[in-house]
Amino acid sequence: MFSNLPIDPDALPAVEQAPLTPVSSRLAPCAALQQLWRWLLMTAVVLWLPVTNTVLTAWQPSIAASVGVLGVAMVALDWREARRRAYGVRKHDIIYRRGLLIHRTQVVPLVRLQHVETLSSPIERAFGLVRLACFTAGGRGADLLIEGLSAQRAEAVKRYLLSRLDGRNHDDPAPPASPPSEPE
């Protein structure tokens, strides 16, 4: 006979109380630099875009300055948001928290993982950072992308996750120990 008993929601573990490790402090300047390049390009396009309308030509420097000010604000917000990111690797899942205005917490069960890879852009490599992409069954792209890990930390987490995929260390009671913060 089939049975599907209800579970007391108050007895469930709170993911918000899971201990999380902050990503590297180098992510904030890296993310700000990437954002700065985008906004500088947009400001330059607005400033140097040929305009034939005389009214728009008079307002063009003011519009470009407004885009530049908005860009500075976005760089500052991106810096603050990057400083708040954190992740956690537990025995049965991996957690990633991000967001400043809109908080996003992703939890991916390790039993769903299919593939793990590391990625880095030239700017990220200059800061010594790597992104860890986790792919699950049925997804087309990375279902979890942890940005701001040092290369050593990303490799250690990747090895642990891959060992769980292979089933070699399936009885491993805990993920690799993580210090309170990323090494500089």
Any low-confidence stretches, pLDDT <50, length ≥5? 179-184
Q: What is the count of helical runs? A: 4
Instruction: Give helix and strand order, one letter per element, not per position.
Output: EHHEEEEHEEH
Class of secondary structure makeup? alpha+beta
The count of β-strands is: 7
In the CATH scheme, what's the topology name of the largest domain? PH-domain like
Question: Which range best describes the helical content: under 10%, 10-25%, 25-40%, 40-55%, 55-70% or over 70%?
Answer: 40-55%
Largest sheet: 4 strands, antiparallel
Our Rg estimate from Cα atoms comes to 22 Å
Describe the structure.
Residues 83-161 form the YdbS-like PH domain. Keywords: Membrane, Transmembrane, Transmembrane helix. InterPro entries: YdbS-like_PH (IPR005182). Pfam families: bPH_2. The chain is built from 4 helices and 7 strands. It is α+β, with helices and mostly antiparallel strands and 184 residues long. Helix 1 runs antiparallel to helix 2. The radius of gyration is 22 Å and the shape is elongated. It has helices spanning 27-48, 54-84, 122-126, 151-166, and strands spanning 21-22, 86-89, 93-98, 104-109, 113-119, 129-136, 144-150.
Structure characteristics:
PH-domain like; 7 strands; transmembrane helix; elongated; three-stranded antiparallel β-sheet; alpha+beta; 184 residues; YdbS-like_PH; membrane; disordered C terminus
